[in-house]
TrEMBL record:
Keyword Hydrolase: yes
Subunit structure: Monomer.
Family, as annotated: Belongs to the NTAQ1 family.
Leader sequence residues: none
Name of the featured protein: Protein N-terminal glutamine amidohydrolase
GO molecular function terms attached to this record: protein-N-terminal asparagine amidohydrolase activity; protein-N-terminal glutamine amidohydrolase activity
Keywords of this entry: Hydrolase
InterPro entries linked to this entry: N_Gln_amidohydro_ab_roll_sf, NTAQ1, Prot_N_Gln_amidohydro_ab_roll
Catalytic activities: N-terminal L-glutaminyl-[protein] + H2O = N-terminal L-glutamyl-[protein] + NH4(+)
Natural source organism: Cyclobacterium xiamenense
């Protein structure tokens, strides 16, 4: 199935992935939601649709879905130029280029079970408004994601990659070791 099968609004990656996790076609699939960022909130990604040439785009954070499909972990990234889905090893190799990345813009990862993410995520979309309260990017037509679970996963909390974050942060090598089959 192509990307057009699923709900998508540019610049709302966490909501797109939340919607994808809940889609019936992936109901029986083992899923993990991956938040990608770093302490500086400036992470380089190659092969992104928002960059027309071959250079990287820098995101403050990005959210993708890992799903176990046909014996391997695959990535669903709505904003990537790569296949949808694509094998995790290929995605990591094409998207994060260690030889072209500095320590300041290297990726780090937080991984959450898909069912936990869909059940507990809350986002009031405040991070998408400017200082006077206007939208930086037009929001999705669907309602903002709210959870009555406590403790929940609040978007601002899961975007925090500082040492005080209560969630485990993985390096690129640690993510590979955990999810890429040898």
């Amino acid at each position: 199935m192509g990307k057009e099968t699923f709900k998508y609004v540019a610049n709302y990656c966490e909501e797109n992935i939340w919607q994808l996790c809940r889609h019936p076609v992936l109901a029986e699939t083992d899923k993990r939601v991956v938040i990608v960022s770093n302490q500086a909130g400036n992470c380089s990604f190659w092969q992104q649709q928002s960059m027309p040439d071959s250079g990287p785009v820098c995101w403050d954070y990005h959210v993708v879905l890992l799903a176990f499909v046909s014996g391997e972990w695959c990535v669903y990234d709505f904003d990537s130029k790569l296949e949808f889905p694509v094998g995790l090893a290929s995605y990591l190799e094409c998207t994060f280029r260690p030889t072209q990345t500095t320590a300041a813009n290297a990726p780090f990862f937080k991984v959450f079970p898909g069912d936990e993410f869909t059940r507990t995520l809350s986002s009031d979309r405040s991070h998408m408004k400017n200082a006077v309260g206007n939208w930086i990017f037009q929001p999705p037509a669907w309602d903002a994601i709210e959870s009555d679970q406590f403790p929940g996963l609040h978007l601002n909390e899961i975007r925090d990659f500082s040492p005080k974050s209560p969630h485990r942060v993985l390096s690129l090598d640690e993510l590979k070791a955990a999810f890429v089959q040898a």
